Amino acid sequence: MVLLDNDGFLTQLTLLLQKTRSSGTVNITMKRYYGQTKPKPKPRGGKKLQKLTAVEQEGDSRCLFRATNGKKKLSTVVNSKDVNRFQMAYANVLKANMDNLKKRDRRTEKNKAKKSKATQ
What we know:
Blueprint: E1 2-4, H1 6-19, E2 27-32, H2 54-58, E3 62-68, E4 73-79, H3 83-97, H4 106-119
Parallel strand pairs: 1-4
Antiparallel strand pairs: 2-3, 3-4
Helix pairs in contact: 1-3
């Protein structure tokens, strides 16, 4: 997984979305980031209070954004002071490249739900 700066992530995300425009999918996830690169081992025995890391204690919230098309993986970490600027640029990238979405057909979903309830 490639950890990029915020602007580099947005440009690579644009390229990734354009490559998969005709066929394919891009999965984008966002979660809170504490700065840890390795998973914490679970405590053995009873429940023990775990000490917070330095990043968790200082209160500077960060978000980890990941994007993948199954082969290529991208990620970036956004600090709390850069969130507004990143969010505006991220929204523009998504609006520009998500023009091929299909509307869900809710009638078929309702019919399937009714049939499954009727058979039970």
